[in-house]
Amino acid sequence: MKLLTLLTTSFLCFSHATAAIISPPYANTTIPCFFSGSTGFDRLSKRNSSCTNIILSNLLVPAGVTLNLNNLKPGTTVTFKGKTTFPYLPTGWSGPLLSISSSSNLTIRGLPGSSLYGSGEFYWDGLGQNGPIPKPKFFQVHKLVDSVIEGVKIVNNPMHVFSINGCRNLMVRGVTVDNKAADGDWNAGKGGRNTDAFDIGQSSEVRIEGARVWNQDDCVAVNSGTNITFCNGLCSGGHGLSIGSVGGRSDNTVRNVLFENSVIANSENGARIKTKHSTTGLVSNITYRNIVLQNITKYGIVVDQSYSPPTKNAPPTNGVPITGFTLVNVTGNVLPTGTNIFVNCGDGSCKQWDWQGVEVKGGKKSSKCLRVPAGSWC
């Protein structure tokens, strides 16, 4: 099967990046600092700035408190071993559960069999960020430079997982987001919502390799940034691989993004670009290459320049041009109730598109496409 072939075959990950990712040493050779259980958290909060080889073994983080690993010394290694637990807080809170920010040359790794458990099942109500109590975001990665995150497994995240912002030259490798238990009927007040796996903003030279994601929202959402690569990944159950929504933020430029050699299965969308109605910005040089779609429920490929929640049926606007949109070997199926391709462009704002080897079948052909540019179809 093509799906299995793509998942089990090793591919080279190409990149739009102008500089290679710099990988810090895999493991710090200094004497390790061990922190375990509930007492380990108290000790860690007093010593994390002085340790450069931190091992967290079955750590129990107090409810409603961030595991703060900010401002670590350059070259520090943080290793997760066993189960790191973030308990439920009945009154809710916004998080993050874990923050590793404002440092450089870090290695953050999860050992085989380790996990970071977010107690999401106690928060899920089908409402996500609109629920009666706030839900914590999981993993804040801000202003991290020349660093690696690898082998980390997230289980039962309450809401958004990785918030990557203001980072440069960051490698995320072999990460798993397992939120399968959050599947549920939102209308019945069940299940996780707004459970984005990777939200990326204001960052450059970010590469995500070999991610395995089971969630209920965007697998990846690039809201701003340059030279971003996602490859050899699996995205299941969510909203696919997305650019945007772009517009209405302090930074509204997305440039040089590559999604490659990945599978999007049982998801609402496959490849998606969405820009906000009546805003300004730029989306440029976006490539989806060797992407397999499987059982997509809504849109196999969708470009929408009318995004304006909560308003529906707003007209597309041209303040955020989408130029240089390339699809190569994007294939697979949409369910009969879905739509294969939908393009909804503003006046003159979609240009220089090049689609080759695109074969998306099984769903409906849209009759509502607008201003489809040369080099593409609907």
Q: Your description of this structure?
A:
Helix content is 5%, strand content 43%. The protein has a single domain, classed as 3 Solenoid (Pectate Lyase C-like). The protein starts with a helix and ends in a 17-residue tail after the last strand. The chain is mainly beta and 378 residues long. The strands form 2 sheets. The protein has a 21-stranded parallel beta sheet that branches. Strands 3-6-10-13-16-19-22-24-26-28 form a 10-stranded parallel beta sheet, with no helix packed on it. The chain has 2 helices and 31 strands.
Topology:
Layout (H helix, E strand, L loop, with lengths): L1 H7 L24 E4 H11 L5 E7 L7 E2 L8 E5 L1 E3 L12 E2 L3 E2 L2 E4 L4 E3 L21 E4 L1 E7 L2 E3 L6 E4 L2 E6 L2 E3 L19 E4 L1 E7 L2 E3 L5 E3 L2 E7 L2 E3 L4 E6 L6 E13 L3 E8 L5 E15 L2 E9 L14 E13 L4 E6 L5 E2 L2 E3 L2 E3 L17
Parallel strand pairs: 1-2, 2-4, 3-6, 4-8, 5-9, 6-10, 7-11, 8-11, 9-12, 10-13, 11-14, 12-15, 13-16, 14-17, 15-18, 16-19, 17-20, 18-21, 19-22, 20-23, 21-23, 22-24, 23-25, 24-26, 25-27, 26-28, 27-29, 27-30, 27-31
Family: Belongs to the glycosyl hydrolase 28 family.
Main location: secreted
InterPro entries: Glyco_hydro_28, Glycosyl_hydrlase_28, PbH1, Pectin_lyas_fold, Pectin_lyase_fold/virulence
Short description:
The chain has 378 residues and is mostly beta strands. Helix content is 5%, strand content 43%.
Number of domains: 1
State the name of the first-level CATH class.
Mainly Beta
- Give the terminus-to-terminus CA distance: 27 Å
Major sheet characteristics: 21 strands, parallel
Number of helices: 2
Helix content: under 10%
How many strands appear in the DSSP assignment? 31
CATH superfamily: Single-stranded right-handed beta-helix, Pectin lyase-like
| Secondary structure category | mainly beta
* Radius of gyration, CA atoms, in whole angstroms: 21 Å
Stated plainly, the CATH topology is called Pectate Lyase C-like
